[in-house]
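User: Reviewer 2 asked us to show a designed sequence for the structure in our supplementary figure. I'm pasting the structure tokens here. Could you produce the per-position amino acids so we can include them in the response letter?
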């Protein structure tokens, strides 16, 4: 038994250079072939690669084993090349009679192996494969195939006692296909240490815990607790992962460090953890994310990198493991892989990136230094987390000079480190667009880092952030929140600007009313004094109270609060307490008018009536309530916990996506303590209320100022009593003649009599004829009498209402009766007119029809209630249509409508 030849165990480093006429020795000749052979083998192993490059699959085809074509190389530099499939139908034991090959030996015993014999090859020891299971007790499909390059020296010299023909030795290299058990195959596969193998095991990815906002977050400590919990999980993951990194990666990283950096990294992470405070805890969380992402990126860069620099010659020097014969039982661990040289590996760039990332990992851990609070707030175009960390802007919490060279592999390879975007770009002399990032194109950036605001007063942050966004025309929005419950009006400017124009309109209307009331008051005082001077009225008419002084006093009572209310409403700062002053204005206006009730008569509403009615004041007050409520709800929504309920996607990213909302959070002291992001524009635009547009005062006809009230002498009691008795006498006469109308008049008479005579009154007898004499048409005469009675009733109630000493309760009752009486009178006028039109009566002057319509028109003058006028207008219009063939009747009806409706 001989030993297997291992050519690369002793590499020839020199050979003999022949000279002319030199006598050559075997050693000199062999030195040349050994040197060239070793160089050829080294070229394969060191510059091309080892293992199975392609093909070489062995499988079953019935009771035969088929070895497919393929190529491979052992770690001793043997080239295995099969250009066509080979069939094997027999086998024989492969035992210790073969040359000694150490990988086949276990505890000085050779592993169980069987050599396959080619189909058609003569071998007396070979047995057919169809009986393999019966003879060996093993399933043929569960066996694994191994290609073995059997190399040894054979000496065929035949020497006798008298002669020896020295023909030299032969270097034998025979390719044999062996079958071994799968356990032995796995041991023979001898997987080399590669980056890809390290990435698969034992390196595991680092899971980055998420800081999930939930529950009550009313203080900075509550928020910090959420992030500390997430940070603790990430810290634990990093300690585990970084501690396990060096062992499997040392073969391709050992030139970067003298020793395992894991303990040093763990100590630095613990120091950073212990120094982390509540203020700025989000940056500590971001830092751990950066380290974890860099580690994961490093691990990802290892996948697929199976290249080996200087593979171990003892790994699989003369064999290649092909795997199980049964495809269903094959496993990668039972087949020799291919390990290319780094020179020809497609993963060469990956390894360079991985080595860069290890250096970056060290830089991040050793150069973390968050400046909280920072001196300045800045916005830097960047990328979101769906892109690699190196494609994003460098965070401001790393020492810039050292970090910018270790941040981006791509830029560092091109020596363009100064083109990295960063908050601290000015500190490492940034070049290109990185020097002034907001002045260059930002279309390639979908994220904007916002830094330098944590720990600073909210007012200072707003003064920098809002103008910076506007000036740079950035596609982002900002929302300001508090941890505690915001005080009322905390978040200016007020939202809901759609109400503001209406609010301004009502303010303008109310200011106009106050101004007109004041002007009208001045004119009213002048009119009072003019009426006294002209002796149209006198102080005697007002129970001896001086009318001029009363006018001045009452005007002052109204004008003082009016000026105060106007200042609060129309001043630079709107003061909702104007309502208190307006109440005094209303009271003053009412007293002003009431003081001259006995000597004045109003024909239409005056500016004082508008103030008393108070419609714009009510509306403005309601708008104040609506605006106050909207502001309060807006303030409530400005608390982080409440805002989170409406926007559960809130999360911290140290910036904001394009089109998103950057959320700034402050504490009870208005110091910024955190920031978050929503990936969408979440809220109603936060705009300042628009500046009010100057509104011109509405024009008022001169009559409004000059003749709103007529001054008349007060009716004294003697004249009033005489007028009352005359009317009573006439009513009694009419009563005797028209008893059927008594019931309709009785209530009014009783009220009137009770007010003046202390009870019911009987009237002297008498008779009354119909107006203008009786009508020959009985029905028309009845209509006329009905209209006359109802006219008298209206006049009587009007007369009673003139009594200044009338009890308020009785006045209210009379007002209700007057409304009812006018409606009945209007209906009677309409019925009478309709009768004339329906009978097609002649209405020329002097006829009964003319007299009837004239009487109806005169009676209609006593109707003033809007309901009654509406009723009669509808009826007269209907009658006019019916009287289409009577032009004279139509004209008289038109005159009735024009005279009363307009």
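Assistant: Here is a per-position design you can include in the supplement:
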């Amino acid at each position: 038994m001989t030993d297997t030849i291992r050519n690369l165990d002793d590499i020839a480093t020199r050979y003999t250079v022949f000279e002319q006429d030199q006598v050559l020795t075997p050693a000199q000749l062999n030195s040349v072939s050994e040197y060239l052979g070793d160089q050829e083998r080294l070229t394969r192993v060191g510059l091309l690669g080892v293992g199975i490059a392609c093909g070489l699959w062995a499988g079953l085809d019935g009771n035969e084993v088929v070895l497919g074509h393929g190529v491979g190389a052992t770690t001793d530099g043997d080239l295995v090349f099969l250009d066509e499939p080979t069939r094997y139908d027999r086998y024989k034991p492969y035992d210790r009679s073969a040359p000694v090959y150490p990988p086949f030996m276990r505890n000085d015993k050779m592993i169980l192996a069987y050599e396959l014999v080619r189909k058609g090859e003569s071998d007396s020891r070979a047995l057919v494969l169809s009986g393999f299971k019966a003879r060996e007790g093993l399933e043929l499909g569960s066996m694994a195939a191994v290609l073995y390059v059997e190399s040894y020296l054979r000496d065929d010299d035949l020497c006798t006692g008298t002669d020896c023909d020295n023909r030299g030795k032969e270097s034998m290299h025979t390719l044999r296909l062996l079958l071994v058990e799968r356990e032995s195959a796995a041991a023979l596969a001898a997987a080399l240490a590669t980056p890809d193998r390290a990435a698969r095991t034992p390196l595991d990815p680092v899971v980055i815990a998420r800081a999930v906002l939930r529950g009550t977050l009313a203080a900075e400590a509550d928020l910090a607790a959420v992030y500390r919990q997430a940070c603790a999980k990430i810290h634990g993951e990093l300690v585990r992962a970084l501690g396990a990194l060096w062992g499997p990666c040392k073969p391709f990283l050992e030139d970067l460090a003298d020793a395992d950096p894991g303990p040093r990294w763990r100590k630095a992470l613990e120091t950073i953890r212990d120094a982390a405070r509540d203020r700025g805890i989000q940056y500590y969380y971001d830092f751990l994310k950066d380290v974890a992402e860099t580690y994961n990126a490093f691990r990802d860069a290892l996948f697929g990198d199976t290249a080996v620099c200087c593979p171990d010659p003892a790994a699989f020097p003369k064999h290649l493991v092909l795997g199980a014969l049964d495809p269903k039982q094959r496993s990668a661990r039972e087949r020799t892989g291919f390990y290319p040289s780094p020179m020809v590996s497609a993963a060469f760039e990956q390894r360079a990136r991985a080595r860069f990332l290890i250096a970056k990992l060290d830089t991040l851990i050793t150069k973390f230094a968050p400046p909280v609070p920072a001196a300045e707030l800045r916005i830097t175009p960047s990328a979101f987390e769906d892109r690699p960390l190196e494609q994003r802007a460098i965070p401001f919490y790393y020492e810039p000079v050292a970090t910018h060279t270790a941040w981006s592999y791509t830029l560092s390879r091109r020596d363009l480190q100064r083109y990295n975007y960063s908050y601290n770009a000015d500190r490492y002399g940034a070049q290109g667009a990185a020097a002034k990032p907001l002045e260059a194109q930002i279309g390639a950036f979908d994220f904007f880092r916002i830094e330098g605001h944590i720990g600073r007063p909210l007012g200072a942050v707003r003064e920098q952030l809002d103008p910076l966004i506007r000036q740079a025309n950035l596609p982002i929005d900002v929302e300001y929140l508090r941890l505690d419950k915001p005080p009322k009006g905390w978040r200016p400017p007020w939202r809901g600007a759609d109400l503001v124009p209406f609010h301004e309109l009502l303010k303008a209307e109310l200011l106009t009313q106050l101004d007109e009331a004041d002007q009208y008051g001045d004119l009213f005082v002048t009119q009072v004094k003019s009426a006294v001077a002209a002796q149209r009225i006198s102080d005697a008419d007002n129970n001896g109270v001086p009318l001029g002084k009363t006018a001045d006093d009452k005007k002052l009572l109204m004008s003082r609060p009016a000026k105060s209310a106007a200042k609060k409403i129309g001043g630079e700062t709107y003061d909702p307490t104007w309502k208190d002053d307006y109440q005094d204005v209303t009271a003053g206006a009412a007293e002003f008018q009431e003081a001259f009730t006995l000597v004045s008569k109003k024909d239409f509403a005056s500016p004082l009536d508008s103030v008393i009615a108070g419609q714009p004041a009510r509306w403005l007050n309601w708008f104040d309530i609506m605006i106050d409520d909207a502001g309060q709800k807006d303030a409530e929504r400005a608390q982080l916990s409440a805002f989170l309920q409406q926007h559960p996607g809130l999360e911290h990213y140290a910036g904001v996506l394009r089109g998103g909302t950057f959320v700034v959070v402050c504490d009870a002291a208005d110091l910024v303590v955190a920031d978050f992001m929503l990936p969408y524009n979440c809220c109603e635009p936060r705009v300042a209320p628009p500046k009010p547009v100057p509104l011109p005062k509405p024009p008022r006809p001169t009559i409004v100022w000059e003749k709103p009230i007529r001054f008349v002498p007060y009716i004294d009691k003697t004249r009033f009593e005489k007028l009352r008795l005359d009317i009573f006498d006439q009513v009694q006469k009419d009563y005797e003649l028209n008893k059927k109308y008594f019931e309709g008049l009785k209530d009014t008479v009783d009220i009137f009599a009770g007010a003046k005579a202390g009870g019911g009154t009987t009237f002297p007898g008498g008779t009354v004829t119909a107006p203008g004499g009786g009508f020959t048409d009985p029905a028309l005469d009845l209509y006329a009498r009905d209209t006359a009675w109802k006219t008298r009733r209206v006049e009587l109630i009007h007369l009673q209402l003139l009594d200044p000493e009338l009890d308020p309760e009785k006045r209210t009752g009379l007002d209700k009766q007057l409304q009812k009486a006018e409606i009945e009178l209007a209906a009677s006028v309409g019925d009478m007119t309709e009768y004339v039109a329906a009978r097609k009566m002649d209405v020329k002057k002097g006829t009964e029809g003319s007299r009837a319509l004239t009487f109806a028109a005169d009676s209609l003058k006593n109707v003033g209630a809007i309901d009654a006028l509406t009723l009669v207008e509808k009826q007269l219009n209907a009658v006019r249509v019916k009287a289409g063939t009577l032009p004279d009747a139509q004209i008289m009806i038109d005159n009735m409508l024009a005279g009363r409706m307009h």
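For the response letter, you might also mention the following. DSSP finds 26 helices and 24 strands in the chain. Residues 716-720, 739-773 have pLDDT under 50 and may be disordered.
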